[in-house]
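Workshop exercise sheet. Pairs work together: one partner reads the sequence aloud, the other fills in the structure field after running the prediction. Swap roles for the next sheet.
Pair: D.N. / O.F.
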Amino acid sequence: MNTERWTPRVTVAAIVERDGRFLVIEEHTSDGLKINQPAGHLEAGETLVDAVKRETLEETAHRFEPQALVGTYLTHFERPGKSATYLRFTFCGTTSGPVPDAKLDDGIVRAMWLTADELRACADRHRSPAVLECLGHYLAGRRVPLDFIHTHSLAPVRD
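Structure field:
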């Protein structure tokens, strides 16, 4: 009997729109150079909001101020010898611009601003189908207030 507990990988992503353009990144992946929203993994002890702020800064050198949750997305990938499930929380919000002297994470080539049409036109270069799915939900006006998200500190489990 398999006693290992299955858990999805929890990720966060940011949608930032300015003047009809969206902040995205170009990054090196095992599948080559891909385009994605600023995104990354939730770290131990972090809130979802703190995680999306940190990831956006690390990947774009822009501070991000979340305003709403666009949606949650559960995706399962199967490849020969490898499978993974991701639970993605996508936020929308604003940025006041780049942070001077901020460095991009390893693997991030650049941050760039693309229109929705430009993003649709390069769908074959997206890191995952979630890029367009989340963008579509954002453009459709989907918004959940941030106070919908609750973070609780739990007492340690006793044996």
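Discussion prompt: The chain has a mean pLDDT of 92. What would you look at next?
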